[in-house]
Design goal:
By secondary structure, the protein is α+β, with helices and mostly antiparallel strands. It has a single domain, classed as Aminopeptidase (3-Layer(aba) Sandwich). The chain has six helices and eight strands. Helix 4 links the parallel strand 5 and strand 6. Helix 1 packs across helix 3. The chain is globular.
Length: 207
Amino acid sequence: MSSPQPSLRETPGNGAVPSTPSLLLRPWTYEDAEPLVRHHRDPQLRAWLATHLDTTRQARAWVDAQNAGWAAGTRAAFAIVEDTGAVGTAPLGTAPLGHIAVTGEGAVSVRVGYWTAPRARGRGIASRALTRVARWVADEDSPFAGRTPELVHAVGNEGSCRTALACGFPLTATLPAAPPARPRAQHLHTAAVPRTPPPVQRAARAA
């Protein structure tokens, strides 16, 4: 994608308690390398992730991969942070609470994936971030407009399953394990949201 990746601010009525900071979903930067390594030491997180970041060098390479995905038009990855400022943009250096990404190379659907740091769990952070990203994907100005959001998680990851269901992603299938890329069976959740016509169709209708 030729334009810079946007940051997404939490919209009113997104499930946040009025007294808590709103969420900002921003691009990952090299400044996040140390927090990434720290979060990846969490045993619960490592149990479900296929990629483990053990050094800052690995974390920076991972950030480069996220930026490359945006440039190629196949991926939008966001650091989930709390916007603690009353006005203006939250600093890029604000420590991330988690990660959420949209991935898709086809024209029909995109996959959403996420994780949260231990201190963010039980606070509704994942569901709020997922709700915001799903709205962005459905927006007609989104680069992924017109594609149905899907979410996949390993069978047994009850936290992710509850979050998906609560955010309007009903369970639609169970995918069998396919080692080594998919060592466990997975649940497939498909968003129950109306699809927005993709840019090509919109342009044709406007012509």
